[in-house]
Amino acid sequence: MAVPVVDPSLNPLTDVDPAEVESTRRPRRRPARADLLALGAYVLLGVFVCLNYWGDVNGRVSSHLPTDHSWFEWLFAHGAFSVRHLENPLFTARQNAPDGVNMMANTSLLGVTLPLAPLTMLLGPQVMYALYLGAALAATAGTGYWMLSRHLVRSRAAAFVGGAFLGFAPGIIHHANGQPNFVSNFLLPLIVVRVLTLGEPGRWRRNGLVLGALVAYQIFINEEMLLLTALACLVVVLAYAVQRPRATRAAAGTFLAGLGVAGGLALVLTAYPIWFQFNGPQSYRGLQGGVFHNWGEDLVAFVTFARDTWAGDPAVEKTIGLTEQNTWFGWPLVMLSVVALVLLVRRSVAARIAAVLIVVFSVAAIGPWVRFNGVETGVKGPWSYVSDDLPLVEMMMPTRLTLVVAAAVGVLLALTWDAAHRQGRPVADRPRVPAQRTGETAPAEPAKPAEGAEPAPVAARRRWLRPVGYAAVALAVLPLFPRPLPAQQIDPPPHFITAGGWRPYVPAGRTLVPVPIPSNVHGLPTLRWSALTGQEFPVPGGYFIGPNELGEGVFGAPNRPTSSLIYSTMDSGTVPALTDENRRQIVEDLRFWRASVVVLGAHPREAVLRELVTALLGPPQRVDDVWVWDVRALVG
Question: Which pLDDT value is given to residue 9?
């Protein structure tokens, strides 16, 4: 990170001579060996985290969020379908036929699935999912490393530790279980750097254009993470302004000019997609009942080891209750963070800003009620005073505000390691510094120690603090080393589907109705049929957020009589007494879905489902490995 620099003799984030940071930089086109080693380590760690998927990449999904996993496989197929058929990617009728799905109003990951469409066509959505998931984790760590090593710390090892935490923190790994949009944070460090350098004299136009382009692109990856980043940047800028009012006033005009350029460009690039998100077909206003507002962070979660870390216990989440593991740092890291802040806040602006971020966003993440070890204490939290109807806020989940806390802790880890690295090394002891921005070097001028730095003899006596600092950081983060994501086997799609046996039954403009009909609760395998065939046939129902009759967002399509009958039969395991009204309703629903064929494949409830559909539509035909009801003559 960096902030608007107006005094060339001082780096306002670290309160030290900027040459101390510059002295470790290499020419821009010649990355240091340490940089390549760091990136290589991140890539290996990304592969390791996804290891269980690669054992059978076509037949395994996340054990924790299998439906989300299938949804994102479907999204990769959607990107490929949109590119191959030159269709508008902001909307699709391949799911929830005939109404369709507003992709901008869902976590569609268009900024990833569209450019990767050629690879999806070549490798398939299952392979692309696993490949991208590991790559996104590594890329986020890599850009975090770049931000830290180029703008905040001198030690490449410090930047490596901080970058690893930014990319593989417990909360990020938690979301990697089926939600790759929350691990696709590789643009966020770049956005933070550009925001905090907008006040750079003479570069407001360039910095603003770059920031605007980055913000526009991030909108097509994850708007929620962009919102959290914007809130964090706002707090950082305000905290810096309080501490450095003179520097802030001097840079304010340039900063605001660059911000205006960034906002203008981002608006031009995203005006139509954002309008489509809130006003296009199948758009909605808020989620029904504000379902996420109760998801606040439990106070005990901060000192608890996350489920998917080496020190974690899967049973502990049953004690703390329903929550995302966005903090779950474990007590060693919490203790280290407190000690580091006490030691660093006096001499480091960056540490003081990190402290403000940690406090502000930890409190804000508590939710409407304070929870302790899974029990609501009856004490009101900050979200008790927030209306569910506020724009943007209505869609937020309080616990996710702690993802900002995780990022601040990652920066704090880098600062702590870097502070340990400085012990025993006098500030004035540096042989060469860059003479120009191009990376050319020149003999260093004799420099006085930075403000707060010890004289050489004192620094030498404190060399023992360096290994102590390294050991403290290592002991805090090693228990959080991620495990490979747990995966479960899933039944393969029927050969009738993958081999194209459905094609004679589904003419253009008609749908294939799988049984059970896909939803956010039922029909996970049948949703994958669409993804694994490149979405060549549309299906009713699905897993998405769309409007109900009041325009509020709900998960999945509103149930029709036939889909409700199928789900209730699955849940009970018996066929209810059927009437002529049930038979009339299924014909009406099939006409609404524009169905041409109903297909039932292998399923744990296959026998009772076949009995139900046979009682409604008559005897099926066995084709390949599925039961088929050709309903074209019935629906007209």
Answer: 34
